[in-house]
Q: What sequence folds into this?
């Protein structure tokens, strides 16, 4: 579990630095990390990536979006390979996102290939 927390912390720190957090406005971050099934093909994984990347164009409440694949040399990923990082202005925006039909449809694309998922949400702090 320590290793998973270290992975999430690394994703959060990197994404916050890259995104250039606006100190005047707190943002609600939604971090999602995937481990795919061993039999998921590269094409299957690409389909999931493309479906997740399409969500910001379908869900107006998403105010920021980044993603990437693990390249840590620490060997602590425990099979988690993909990190997706979404930003919301409010808990109400996140509450609209979670049951949104486009988010549900993404879940249908993901489900056959997903082994494990880890999700953490937090409010940015100065």
A:
């Amino acid at each position: 579990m320590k290793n998973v927390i270290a992975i999430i912390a690394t994703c959060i720190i990197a994404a916050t630095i890259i995104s250039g957090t606006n100190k005047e406005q707190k943002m609600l971050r939604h971090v999602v990390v995937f481990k795919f099934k061993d039999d998921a093909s590269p094409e299957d994984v690409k389909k999931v990536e493309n479906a997740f990347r399409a969500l910001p164009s379908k869900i107006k409440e998403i105010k920021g979006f980044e993603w990437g694949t693990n390249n840590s040399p620490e060997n602590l990923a425990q099979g988690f390979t993909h990190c997706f990082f979404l930003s919301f202005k409010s808990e109400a925006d996140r509450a609209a996102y979670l049951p949104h039909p486009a988010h549900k449809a993404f879940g249908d694309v993901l489900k056959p290939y997903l082994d494990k998922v880890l999700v953490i949400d937090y409010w940015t702090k100065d």
